Amino acid sequence: MNTSQRQSPVELPELDTGLTLVDVGSDLGVTPVQSLLLDRVFAGDGDAYWVDAAGTAQTTRLRELAPDKRYLHRVHVARGFTAYQQTSLLDRLTGDRVTTPSVVVATGIDRLYRDTDVPATHAQDLLVRAIAALARVARVHDVPVVVTRSRADEFTRPLVNAAQTHLQWEDTQFGPRFTDAAGDVETLVYHLSDGWVQTTLAYWQEVLTHRARMHDASVVGEEATSGSV
Amino acid sequence: MLTVDFHSSGDVVHWALTDDGVTRTVHSEYTPTLFVGDAVRDLYGRRGGPTPTPPDRDGLSESLTDLQAFLTGQDAVVDIQCEAHRQTFRTAPRPLLRIDAASVDAVRRIAQRVQQFNGPAEYTCYNVDLTPQFRYCLETTTPASPDRSVRSLRTLTLSIPPHKAGPDALSHLTIDGDAAGPTPEATVTAVDRAVRERDPDVIVVSTAKLVPVLFDAADTHDVPNFELGRAPGYTKLAGESTYTSYGQVGHSPARYTIPGRVVIDESNTFFYHEAGLPGCLDLVNRAGLPLEELSWASIGRVLTAMQIRAARDRDVLVPWQAWRPELFKPAATLDAADRGGTTFAPAVGVHENVHELDFASLYPNIIRTRNISPETVCCGCCDTNDVPGLGYSICEADGYLPTVLGPLIDARSRIKDQIEETTDDVERDRLDSASSAIKWILVSCFGYQGFSNAKFGRIECHEAINAFARDILLDAKTALEDAGWRVVHGIVDSIWVTPTKDREQRNLETVAAEISTDTGIELEYECAFDWVTFCPMRNSESGALTRYFGKRRDEALPVSEATLGDAIKTRGIEGRQRSTPTWVEDVQAEALRVFDKTRSPEAVCDVLRRTLTSLRNDDVDPERLVIDNRVSKHIADYTHETLTVAALKRATLNGTGLSPGQTIQYVVVNNNAHGTERVRLSYEDITRYDTDWYANAAIRAVESVLAPIGWREGEIRDYLTGTTDQTLTAYSERTDS
Ligand SMILES: [Zn+2]
């Protein structure tokens, strides 16, 4: 509807190899991160792997965001419900069954270690171990690893220290913006002058459709036959 | 055995029935056992896939050898050696550390030390958190049931009304329903005498707190040698506690036990409430969980006990934590799996000539007939596409879960047949109890598979069961449509059909039998309805899945007013909910009667109008306005100032605070007042009620009946404010007779 009036290109931050911590201070929760994940899938060299410990891996939102449902075959999800399960899943990311990912996402990395069934003396150790596992994933596969946390506090300080990049995501009057914590890089996703409401699903669908086109990847309406993307 | 006492010395006292009493046997050599294996990552880490492939080794690993050296000689440890067992259903026996503990309490202490030795997650512990009596039965192969061929159990019930508390409470205690004594001292003496004379095997208490209260009172009033047990004293097994698990706050009340007798706490028991003592004993026998532990166990705990026994038969140990993660799967698969059970959205409104068909115990039967088990789904050894829509394989080898549920399914249908046949009321009660205890296990086994913290749960199992259920329901729909029937609603395991217009119908029972054969699960013809009405959701036009009512064809409405008997089946509307006051229930029942007779919203509203008039004239007995709510959490955990919260606060103010699981009963006296003034508790003197609040409740109850034909609250109120009673003359004779 508004695409013809669009002034600026639709941008998402370029992800570098290594750990990128993304803090999303908004009700949107996991949507910006899912968008980063899909963006890597469009660019297209391999599949995305997503370990969720935040209880956010409902596929409904991902399905709604994806410009083509076939992308859902290229996002591999596993949910950790206990600290031990999460630890195992992070280990598996460097196992035989995970080959050439294009991006790895770990949401709510700290959450399960805060649970009461993990001995307090172990919580910090386990978190550090989890961060180390993710750093290894980045190294072994030479890919970007996007991490989110459930709370920004002293407990998750090691994550801030370990991350190469720390992006803060925020709503601004001009649109959603990713800001590098170092303060030097800023990505304004999409200028809002033409009336989009950035918290809506429609907004993000629009963003991702543009991104998919930029990468010459498939979007709904362009593909006529089914099959793998 | 009847019960087992555990002494801190490590001695275990085993009590068993004899024809005139009990025998007491002391085992001083009993040592509970736990096992320790290598790190979680060996099983489920980098190499982990559908089948864990831990690295080969002959003896103990280096880190287990270190641990052995560390634990050797510690007080809690009696013996420690290397022994091979299976850590999962899909791995072969491996050499592990076997640790014999000095006492049941020592088991957890040892496990905690293991956890703290070396880095986190370096070891996996097994057979740690078994309840003591269950563990004793398992490890000594003692039958968990009391031997009732010797004699039946003797019971004594001690109760205090829930709203009585404080030092005076004991004056209100009853022994098997009879008042014990006018003073606390007299009560203690009477309890002491009753226990000595009756020599009960089971003491049922309205709250476990009675145990310490009685002992304290005996102390205060110098009642000599007061005992509840068959040996001196009592033991506090667990303190009252609050815990957080997966974001949910839970409470468990304190638990007490006494020597040589089973204590059942009525405020902390699911199965005793649901199935009574006969049902509990039947389940003790099936689950192998001793009576006292079964009495406070959740459904999940009983199911776990059965799974633990099945695992033990296969030499599989019980993991301490839920380590096994789900497999990576494409978001597309997860999306398909997340769809849940299939439902055909019902068409809101009245449907004539409807038949209901139900799949018998659908989920347990899917598990059984499709061989679904944590170790068979996505097994890793079979490369087949077995689960519809998800493509998961199911192993050719027999799973253990079907062997746990199979006997329960068979027992339940056998008991159902016996209920049909028996003419003896006592026997029928016993069978009903047994059947209802089993029913709860069967209806919960599906959901429990999805609990990721369940010991033997597995998400892929849960997803597979769901996928089969969806497939079966869709197949049934197609078969019914082919036979000339239109499906008006379907949910989980039930289908409602009506003849398709201008088509011939094949006999429904024949079609159902064919579907049963095809799916391997019996589709039972439930009943015929003259009409069925599907209700819309409260704030929408679309059909609510579980709100409906209908008139059974072969049942006549009872002559007496305000009861529906079996003639009208209702689901999800006010009359079904236990909290609904009797008066509101009666208003709804009357509305349903008039609806059945007239199908006229005006006639139904006229009934409502007359009822509201008597409400406004203060003609309603406040007893019929009592709201009955089960307390689900502590006051502090309620986030909204609901009426129930007001009532709970009022109870606390009166010194009769209630615990979760207990029931609070109150009448709304002024909804607009502040805090505790909004309500009166049912035991208080109630002289007034909040007319508007109850009028609204009645209007909502009638709205449930009329919404399917387009009359919402607005229409009802408009009609009520109209001055003429259009149908009173027309229907009054019939409805008032
Ligand atoms: Zn197999």
Oligomer category: heterodimer
Helix tally of chain B equals: 21
Instruction: Report the CATH topology name of the largest domain in chain B.
Output: Palm domain of DNA polymerase
What is the CATH topology descriptor of chain A? Rossmann fold
CATH class of the largest domain in chain B: Alpha Beta
When the domains of chain B are counted, the total is 4
Form type of chain B: globular
The CATH architecture category of chain A equals: 3-Layer(aba) Sandwich
CATH class of chain A: Alpha Beta
DSSP strand content of chain B: 15-25%
- Order of strands, main sheet of chain A, comes to 3-2-4-5-1-6-7-8
- Percent helix of chain B, as a range, is 25-40%
Q: What structural class do helix, strand and pairing data of chain A support?
A: alpha/beta
Order of helices and strands of chain A: EHEHEHEHEHEEEH
Description:
The complex is a heterodimer of chains A (229) and B (737). Chain A has 229 residues and is of the alpha/beta class. Chain A is built from six helices and eight strands. Helix content of chain A is 31%, strand content 19%. An eight-stranded mixed β-sheet of chain A has the order 3-2-4-5-1-6-7-8, with helices on both faces. The model of chain A is unreliable at 1-7 and 221-229 (pLDDT under 50). Chain B is α+β, with helices and mostly antiparallel strands and 737 residues long. Chain B has a seven-stranded antiparallel β-sheet. Chain B has a five-stranded mixed β-sheet with strand order 10-9-8-11-16. In chain B, strands 5-6-4-7 form a four-stranded antiparallel β-sheet, with helices on one face. In chain B, helix 9 (299-313) crosses helix 12. Classes of the chains: A alpha/beta (229), B alpha+beta (737). Chains A and B meet through helix 2, strand 3, helix 3 and helix 4 of A and helix 1, helix 3, strand 13, strand 17 and helix 10 of B. Strand 3 (75-79) of chain A pairs antiparallel with strand 17 (329-330) of chain B. Bound molecules: zinc ion.
